[in-house]
Every structure is written in structure tokens, then in C-alpha cells.
Design brief:
The protein is an alpha/beta fold. The chain has two domains: about 10-110, Immunoglobulin-like (Sandwich); about 115-300, Zn-dependent exopeptidases (Aminopeptidase). It has helices at about 115-120, 145-165, 180-190, 220-235, 270-275, 280-300; strands at about 10-20, 25-30, 35-45, 45-50, 55, 60-65, 70-75, 80-90, 95-100, 105-110, 125-130, 165-170, 195-200, 210-215, 240-245, 260-265. The strands form three sheets. The protein has a six-stranded mixed sheet, with helices on both faces. The longest helix has 20 residues, at about 280-300. The protein is elongated.
Length: about 300
Amino acid sequence: MYLLNKPLITNLWSKVVDGENEKQLTRVTVESTGPYKYMLKEVSGGFLLECFGVEINMPEGRLEVNDGLLQDISIEQAGNDAARVELFLDHPAECVHVLYNDFPCRLVLNLNRAFINSLLSAKKIVVDPGHGGKDFGGRGQVSLLEKDVVIPIANNLERNLKKAGAEVLLTRRTDKDVPLDERAALATSANADAFISIHTNASADRSEVGAATLYSPHDNGSKELAMYIQKEVIKKLRVKDRGSTVQQVLGCLGKEIPAVEVEVVTITNIVEEVFLRGLTIQERAAEGITNGLIKYFACGGPSAKGDKK
């Protein structure tokens, strides 16, 4: 039974927000019925928040985040009068904390995403919404066309990458046919660090489901990029993992530019067609691709490409 004068932690959440000078932050908010003593310290792989004289009045356990910086948050009761909140990070970050003694009381932890900006600030990414014009691409069982649904995903990806500091070029913004050689020429002339083509899978077998990421046949980091993106897209969408394989047509990008084709679920499956119509999947697919790019560059990418001007 809770003591009436003991603060209770009632809620916990995180989101990416715009900070000062348009620099993004990951903001973690711990909500409670009143103030309490706490200690925040940096630990291997993240931060540990130790709270004293407080009890948890919400589900304990691990909360998956995957926002490119913050991987997970865990919260647990550590005895009668203490609680532990741990932040698990994919990349290094500084943390600034502020306590607001309103009701409800809020302890806000702001994680600086400067490391991610340092990874992407010098990068040029070409985002390629597949098909267009008379080329419909795949068609769903109801009426959804691949050429249409890839546009909002590309727009979300562009927004995410620009906020992280990258320079982004789209091969098309409207419903028009753009020949493959023109798409490749744009990437080549820009001296791009990556080419991301967005598609959906289509199959004569209407029971087929899932997402896949294909890669250029050239040994230029494309396979590694596809593996990172595929892993992160599956985390975000929670659909069947169809894996990664070679896409020969991406060879037209040449040997200098890592190139992948992301097949965001399967449009010919009725369930995934309905899924594709929602804003949630369009946003989460873009988040997964963004996170894959971040991890790719964090692990070196094609090492010679990061310092290009």
C-alpha cells in the first residue's frame, strides 16, 4: 500500500524535439505526483537515474524507443523507497536535466543529439521515390499504387535527414516518370554519399508479406548499408523480415555511391496495403531508414566518403 505522502512515478515517455538553434534533442520526461531526490550519472552505454523516496505507479520494465540516439528506457522499483530509470544509448550524448515542481511534477532529461549531426552534417543523400507517371509500380488489391505511397515516405525521410544536418536531394516530388539513368545521374553529379530508393514489394502470391532491402552489386558499402537499414526498418514496422539481397539495376549508380532499394512491406497483400495507407507506417518507415543511415555512418560507412566536399 502506498504512503499518502510519498511521491509516485506515474508516467514516462520520450520524443525528439527541436532545441535552441534548431538543434534536435531527445527529451525524456519522468512524471510524478510530487518532487523527490534523485541522482543522474553517466554509465557505460547511457545514463542511470536513481530516484529516492518515491514509488513506481506504472508498468515496470523496458520501453523500446529507437529514435536514432536513444535505444531503450528501463524503469524498475529498487526497494521500498527507490526507483531506477536507465537510458540505453546507441551513440554518445550529453544530458541536461531540469525538475519542474508543478502538478504533475516533471523531471525532464534532455539528450544532445550533436553526435548524430556530426555524422550527417557533411553527407549528401539522394532519396529516390520509385516509379512515377505511367509507371505505377505495384498495385494493391484495393487500389493503392506504389508510385503514390512512396512519396510521403520520401518526404518524411527528407525531413528527418535535413533535421539531422544532411543535404538531401529527391529524384522526384510529383507524379512524373524519371528514367533510371536520370536518377543515377543526379546522384553522380551530386557526388552523393548514399542513394536510397524507396519501393514496396509486389508479388503474385497475395499471402506474401514483409519488408526487404536490396543493394547494389558493387562492393562499395551498399551491402552493409542495406543490412543496417533492413534491421532498423524491421524494428520500426514489426513486419516479416524478408532480408537483403542484390538488386542488379542499382549497378548503374557505379562503384562510388552506396545504393540500396528499400521495399517497405508488400503492397499486394491486403493487410499490408491497408497498413501502407496510414500515416504511422509512412513515418516509421522513414525513421527506420534514417536510423539505418545513422548506424551505417557511425560504423564508418565507406570511410573515404565522409569527408567529401
